[in-house]
Amino acid sequence: MTDPTTPQPRTRVAIVTGASRGIGRDTAERLAADGFAVVVNYAGNEAEADKTVGAITEAGGRAVAHRADVAEETEIATLFDTAEQTFGGVDVVVHAAGVMTLAPLVDTDLDALDRMHRTNIRGTFVVDQQAARRLRPGGAIINFSSSVLALALPGYTGYAATKGAVEAMTLILARELRGRDITVNAVAPGPTATALFLDGKDEETIARMAAQPPLERLGTPSDIAGVVSFLAGPAGRWVNGQVVRANGGIA
């Protein structure tokens, strides 16, 4: 029987953006399995976000869904308010939301570039700003970059440029939070079998990219979620201001 006078361990709380599908969904479910209460952020697909919450609660975890545009400061502030009011605070923020449009630089539609800039750069800035203000000591901020930065793949100019900005923010913020006991890192997946990656690619292209890593397969969302789990947990506390290239050795 638990002694009522003994302090009980505080539930750790995670916000995961872009958690209605893909890597974000697997990450939310993995952190819930690790014991986190999870706020599932989504941009527009409420039904898919509810599926993420349902999967977590059916497995015995705690989760709520909250819609917010990552690039809107007031909406992200409300997202953090929800986490604090529902679960008591915020310890980990995983910023997995992102958009990608592929085209050579010469053919890139500038409206598409602006959309990537708004979601991938401004969104990261806004989410990280709230996280830096509101995370509890012992917390972690985990952004998402991409291994296309190292691969320099034609057609990825605009997208890779936004992820270069994410890496710059990550490394600098880690140093700006000196003395706060908060780590800041980025995960840079290689080709991963998500809708974001698979959409618009033919089978030959997918097979060619799957064969490139020494492990000779595409990554899976659960592969990436495992890296996030490490960075969010006690074993990852000495990793700070780093970009972890989770790509099976492709670069």
Short description:
The chain is of the alpha/beta class. The chain is 45% helix and 13% strand. Helix 4 links the parallel strand 4 and strand 5.
CATH superfamily: NAD(P)-binding Rossmann-like Domain
Helical content, roughly?
A: 40-55%
| Order of secondary-structure elements | EHEHEHEHEHHEHHHE
Strand order of the largest sheet: 3-2-1-4-5-6-7
CATH architecture classification name:
3-Layer(aba) Sandwich
Decide which structural class fits the backbone.
alpha/beta
What portion of residues belong to β-strands? 5-15%
Low-confidence stretches: none
The CATH topology corresponds to: Rossmann fold
Q: What count of helical segments does DSSP give?
A: 9
Backbone shape: globular
Radius of gyration: 18 Å
Text of the CATH class: Alpha Beta
Give the end-to-end Cα distance, rounded to a whole number of Å: 52 Å
Number of strands: 7
Largest sheet: 7 strands, parallel
How many domains would you count in the coordinates? 1
Average pLDDT confidence is 93
